[in-house]
Amino acid sequence: MSTTQRIVSFLPSATEMACALGLGDQLVGITHECDYPPEVQGKPVVVRAALPVERMSQAEIDRAVAERMRAGLSLYEVDEELLRALAPDLILTQDLCQVCAPSGNEVAQALKLLPNEPRILWLTPTSLSEIFDNVRELGAATGRTQEAEELIARGNARLGALAAATRNLASRPRVFCMEWLDPVYCGGHWMAEMVRIAGGVDELAREGADSVRIPWDDVLRWAPEVLVITPCGFNLDKVIEQAPQLFNYPGWAALPAVRQGRVYAVDANSYFARPGPRVVEGTELLAHLIHPDLFPWAGPRQAYRRLEYSTAKQMNYSRAS
After folding, report:
1. Which residues contact 272 (CB under 8 A, 6 or more apart)?
2. 74 and 188: one domain?
3. Contacts of 179 (CB under 8 A, 6+ apart)
4. What's the number of domains the chain is made of?
5. How far apart are the C-alpha atoms of 278 and 318, rounded to whole Å?
6. Torsion of CA 53, 275, 14, 158, to 10 degrees
7. Element (H, E) at 321
8. 10 Å Cβ neighbour count for 150?
9. What pLDDT digit, counting tens, does each position of 245-280 carry?
10. Which conformational region is residue 253 in: left (phi greater than 0), alpha (psi within -120 to 50 degrees), or beta?
11. Which residue range is the domain that position 217 belongs to?
């Protein structure tokens, strides 16, 4: 039986999950970053960034985030008056990453202002299976258990088929998923798992753990054959805009991935950074980037671009893989 509720989402992945379960009409408040599916646009925005990140470089963002966290300041602003007016029955949030969305402290503060305390669903996955667990929990909380199980079954079937196709590959290229460019961060949480299912190996990633800053020398030693630029919170256009700073790293031109033209900018927001249903497509995209002859990409053309380095220090962009 379906349960009608007034739902507020504090994170984009939860918004995507809710809509995938047919809860779009019950979603009364979202964040400034919620841009998918398109029908959520125009809904009241309850959460905004405290920093003007759209006008900042990655190094500036990194420094500003560190300063605010050291000072005990939030990276997000909750519109408390709007939240009170929306009177949600259910708030979808997380306590996994203070940088990604409002976490425990912000939620606790917001709840003090509400006349009736809503239910809080904490979505804090660190793996693909836990992302599906979150879908199941949201389904149970909203009377959409069947829809949730069907969504999970479809996702697992696609991932299972891909894993079976890559299990016995003779070659598993060295991959590095760069989760931040300046400074360099490795992939965290579900990224290593996605790469493994897609037929590669990323030994710099921290499976099931936070992404962390790593020395550039670690990347040089790993010598990735496929380099995927996946900065958290960035869409494809923003990744391409930031990509030229990669030339500043010593030894960049000597990396196997650069020499072989296998450096890719991707839409990190859509397919990698957000722990929602589209991580399945993200894994399929990785399979295409790692093994283009074996796995075609049938998704949006704007999902990725190949970045070509030249000795003139110019970046060329191509859809071809």
Report:
1. 177, 191, 194, 230, 266, 279, 282
2. no
3. 185, 186, 187, 188, 191, 211, 230, 231, 232, 273
4. 2
5. 23
6. 140
7. none
8. 13
9. 898 899 999 999 999 999 999 999 999 999 999 999
10. alpha
11. 168-318
